[in-house]
Amino acid sequence: MQKSILILNSGSSSIKYKLYDMDGEFVLASGLVERIGEAAGKAYHRVSGENGIREIELSQSFTDHRQAFDHIFGVLGNPGLSAIGHRVVHGGEQFHCPVLIDDEVIEAIRANIPLAPLHNPSNLLGIEIARELYTDTPQVAVFDTAFHQTLPAVAWCYAVPREWYERHHVRRYGFHGTSHAYVAKVAARLMGRPLESLNLITLHLGNGASITALREGRSVDTSMGMTPLEGLIMGTRSGDLDPSIVFYLERTCGLGAEEVERLLNHESGLKGICGSNDMRAIHKASDAGDHIAQLAIDMFCYRIRKYIGAYLAVLGKVDALVFTGGIGENDPLVREQVCKGLEGLGLVLDPGKNQRRCKESTSLHGSHGPIAIYRIPTDEELEIARQTLTCIEDGCG
Length: 397
Ligand code: AMP
Fold this sequence. Notes:
By secondary structure, the chain is an alpha/beta fold. The chain has helices spanning 65-76, 103-111, 120-133, 153-156, 162-168, 177-191, 244-253, 257-266, 269-274, 279-287, 291-315, 325-330, 332-339, 351-355, 380-394; strands at residues 4-10, 15-21, 26-34, 42-49, 52-59, 83-88, 99-100, 139-143, 200-205, 209-215, 218-222, 320-324, 362-363, 372-375. Helices cover 39% and strands 20% of the residues. Strand 9 (200-205) and strand 10 (209-215) form a beta hairpin. Helix 6 packs across helix 15 (380-394) and helix 10 crosses helix 11. The chain binds adenosine monophosphate.
């Protein structure tokens, strides 16, 4: 029987899905409903069938998630699902791996809402609707945070009153776990070695950005913290900054906590520095002589280099550095600037390989570099589908 797995990513105003036949890991259908709750909603679907691939694009308003799900399930028909895998952003400390969803799991995801108020409620809504519509189909939750539950206390503790952790769960959790896990496995395959034998640094550089240090295949440090705001400079998030800035703004400009949170998450990062969070547009502006756009690129790369240096020190010995995400996969200039000057630390980029454009995973290191460098397209949905299948076949955990 065909093993069909549906992956759902239910966000606050959009729902993305992908339907896989896991026997050959083929994508049977994929799509997106966006601007849910707005007057001008949109839906895109790409469905493969006996007569080839059908593409559907609709402008239609979707009043709520339920209506959007009804629409998606209407397009998919009855695909005879083996399981549904749900992306869930925050699993707190309870979830170290994917889990089969039951009432208890739902309550635990609900309990983590204060840690991810923007994401967990819409993830949960997707789970609840899918459970109502597919009562007999096993449903699995795959958490962005789970991969980083192997962090040692020195990496996950903040130097704040212990009570903040004990009573309020204030600690570093890390995110982008499925992406880091996926590219680490691909890197191990490319190197022809078991993941458990490798020390890696994986760089996810997209609109969100994070870097992870893996010792013997397990995450031992990562740049995002209690929330995805910490760490690298991102499209619209500041990354690391002095927390006193928040109190200073409150005192001097009268800005409230909510407004500062919005500014740091949505108006900072590359956008805050130069007005755009689209790296392609920033390169264009810089090429046209815009110094602030060049500063944004320089700051973006400088922060990454600081973290690479830190993680080389954390790991002691590193086998490979991996670039992924929209920028990591497609931007040779950023990769070059990130690696420049790190040759003495073992990172030697081959300029020719770095410039070559292709869709597949490729090595980018020169022949003398002791640390391998890879460009690996991430595939979070496939990783969620694989983890979902493993969870229903072999049990979770
Ligand atoms: P993601 O969030 O992974 O989709 O990545 C989005 C980021 O990737 C945006 O900053 C895009 O400008 C950037 N990006 C996508 N394609 C390219 C490209 N060919 N060159 C440079 N940046 C790119």
